[in-house]
Amino acid sequence: METSFAIEEPITHQRCTESLSSVEDAIYVIGGKWKLKIIIALQEHGNIRFNELQRIVTGISARVLSNELKDLELNGFVKRIVHSEQTPVVVEYISTDYSKTLKPVIIALSEWGRTHKNNIREDVFENK
């Protein structure tokens, strides 16, 4: 069986600094306890009203959800649609196409999290 290894460029100080800066920017925008949960819920459920979203993202308060939605809208991940022609006025939230660019990242994080949890379980049980 042949094993091939990709030869990587040596990591320079500049490249390392740029990578750290990029990761810091990403974590700033999507980090925290709720943002990815909200993005995932919107991607899975499509157009969704505030109260329905709050029920799906269990444990989040209305105030925190409102603030997180404003941040996500500011960063282009969420679009707020107001249906003012209806009475009462209906407000829905949807994920943007830009938000969907996170899908590979979310899948990778999910797989890594599952693997990590299994590794921790195995390690815990092996050490007993």
Your description of this structure?
With 128 residues, the protein is mainly alpha-helical. The protein has a single domain (17-126), classed as Orthogonal Bundle (Arc Repressor Mutant, subunit A), CATH 1.10.10.10. 60% of the residues lie in helices and 11% in strands. It has helices at residues 13-30, 35-45, 50-56, 62-74, 97-100, 103-126, and strands at 48-49, 78-83, 90-95. It is extended and about 60 Å long. The protein starts with 12 loop residues before the first helix and ends with a helix. This is Helix-turn-helix transcriptional regulator. Residues 16-121 form the HTH hxlR-type domain. InterPro entries: HTH_HxlR, WH-like_DNA-bd_sf, WH_DNA-bd_sf.
Give a quick summary of the entry.
Helix content is 60%, strand content 11%. The protein has 128 residues and is mainly α. The chain has a 3-stranded antiparallel β-sheet with strand order 1-3-2.
Write the layout of secondary structure elements.
Elements: H1 13-30, H2 35-45, E1 48-49, H3 50-56, H4 62-74, E2 78-83, E3 90-95, H5 97-100, H6 103-126
Antiparallel strand pairs: 1-3, 2-3
Protein name: Helix-turn-helix transcriptional regulator
InterPro entries: HTH_HxlR, WH-like_DNA-bd_sf, WH_DNA-bd_sf
Pfam families: HxlR
Radius of gyration equals: 20 Å
Biggest sheet architecture? 3 strands, antiparallel
Strand content: 5-15%
Structural class: mainly alpha
Which percent bin holds the helix content? 55-70%
Strand order of the largest sheet: 1-3-2
Shape by Cα distribution: extended
**What low-confidence regions span 5 or more consecutive residues with pLDDT below 50?**
none
Q: What's the CATH H-level homologous superfamily?
A: Winged helix-like DNA-binding domain superfamily/Winged helix DNA-binding domain
Number of helices: 6
At the fold tier of CATH, the topology name is Arc Repressor Mutant, subunit A
The number of domains: 1
State the separation between the terminal residues, measured CA to CA.
36 Å
Mean pLDDT: 89
Name of the CATH architecture: Orthogonal Bundle
Total beta-strand segments: 3
The top level CATH class name = Mainly Alpha
The ordered H/E elements are HHEHHEEHH
